[in-house]
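Bench log, entry 3. Co-assembly request; chain sequences pasted below exactly as received.
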Amino acid sequence: MTSTFRQTVRANLAKPEVRANFYRAMDGLMTRRLDQFPDKAELERLRTQSMAIRANALSKLPELLETLEANLTRNGIQVHWAETPEQGNQIVQAILERHNAKSIIKGKSMVSEEMGMNHFLEALGIECLESDLGEFIIQLDGETPSHIIMPAIHKNRIQIAKLFHQKFPDIPYTEDVDELTQTARRILRDKFYAAPVGLSGVNFMVAETGTLCLVENEGNGRMSTTAPPVHIAVTGIEKVVESLSDVPPLLSILTRSATGQPITTYFNMISSPRKVGEKDGPEEVHLVLLDNGRSNIYSDPELLATLRCIRCGACINHCPVYVRIGGHSYGTVYPGPIGSILEPQKAGLDVHGELAQASTLCGACSEVCPVRIPIPSILNRLRYDGVRKDAANTNTVGSGKRRTLSEAATWKTWAWAATHPTIYHAGSTLATRFKGMLPTNLGAWTTVRSAPKLAESTLHQQVKNLGVDHE
Amino acid sequence: MATKPDTIYFFGTCLVDLMYPQAGVSAMQLLQRAGVKVIFPPAQTCCGQPAWNSGYRDEARSVARAQIALFPKPIPIVIPSGSCAGMMKVHYPELFAGQQDEAQAVDVASRVYELTEFLVDVLKIELQDLGEPLTVAVHTSCSARREMGVADKIESLLGQLSNVQRVEHARKPECCGFGGTFAVKEPEISAAMVLDKVTHIRNTGVDRLISQECGCLMNIGGVMAKQGDALPHQHIAEFLWERTHV
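Structure output for the full assembly:
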């Protein structure tokens, strides 16, 4: 049976324009990142420091979340806890209903994508407008993000120009990037002022001060968190750091790893609603903290590193699989290497475990990860969990459910042959002697490749003539 | 290792054994010429990596355990493959963590060298090029590059050959799409990767492709053969021996 993942992969591999868009974009991002780190030693020091900051925060996660909640509350920010996406959406719905809000303007938030918030609110008759340019573009086209930082990276300039012309026929057709951006800007400006509620994500939450930090480039994050009278921030529980001094190193490595920028254009620090006597800012600020499987990941020391992620997308930019199949092939909110470890853990190995197979374990992801998440090791662990017989011994959702009788039997036979040298040698000798009779069509392998050719005689046979000690 | 060892173990790997025995023969000849006695334990089969990467850890462990028993002496174990060396050096200690033979696995891991690493760092081999002028492209396996961190060794060995000119290809550090069972489990993605790799290598117009990984060579070479007009491709050991023996 062909899985949904395989079908989507096939379909996307067959779109040369999309593949070219990804190839070009990721090449550019890799070069820009490289240019940001001329000093290898400095990069490695910063990675170690950033890993330590995130690991420290996770080691005290429950305690830091309590401190965070206390300090946010003291600052006048209302904190809400959601175990599931549904609960998160209901919390947002309740806030909107209290304000009788029929629309919402959104800054960029991957957690709101995780919650399926737009779909949920639109079903209630609430208009959700994405204000991040990339999100705005894909929303126009009825799509989901194909990258966590650059949601519309799968589209090129011409495709976007055509889309704008189709959706805004009154505006003259242009392929000029600045003009296209200005069009979006004009449309969004009015919406910022009219919207009763603005929503955003969060990059870092500082426990000791009760501060929400937001990294962005377009100013839409600043607008959606300050112009409307109510601001709702949504994020995962893992985004907390202990102290304010933890933020600068993370910010520095985040922007350089993500887009190759030395620093972000806007860095927002939100520490309270509008205070008495202040002329602007929202009157109410809410924070919705989503668990959605994160506590479960937290409970496994080997998988915990997954939660160190600061969502820079460097692993995605450097992944040879992602660059070819694109973000939509994954069928998940988070694509690429981080998605391939995070999504199977959140949804279960029975649902997204196939993603853990979609990697050559080449290690390009962990080589660039700013917080040194051992992605290949976690992929390997998830592959193990998927097929293990003692599924009860692990908390990973869906453990053991990918085990099939035929695959297990194959490995068992393989192990038997490889632990019985006489059998192995007899088999390999026979195979090389009668290699002319071996099949040349090996299914998937031989679609683009010739079948591997066995040697005339094995190394084991040849070694005897070498004067090598065959003890 | 400060001093040059008198004797080493050689682990041939199953791909070298079955597909590229000349790579194993050449590697042992290079080692012997450098004055090292080579022991090839005949009961060796496979390092266990295919099962390890597929999640079948019990099966991987039983195969790995059989190999560990073959290297009792406290001498280096040299392997003409970054990925099998990576399996033994990096993953054996993980695979045997908490097992009764953990110490033995860690001991074996500590003695593992990838061939080019051993030739350069331990033997400090000096090569004299006897061949005709030739251009080559180098494909470094991901395991050699990242897991073992020895990608520069193949380059330094080739750099010693005065008549060999290395030509860089686009996206050189990128994976060729083999990834063991990945090529079988995700054939379409693997095909897209290896076809690009072949194009980048062909675009250099070199005479030959050199790698230290037989899995990559089988993958890349298989595409070239299917396309006809296969570019000659060789394991580094075979190439070095061919260029330097009288």
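Strands of chain A lie at 77-82, 103-106, 127-130, 197-200, 204-206, 211-216, 230-236, 240-241, 266-270, 284-290. The mean pLDDT of chain A is 95.
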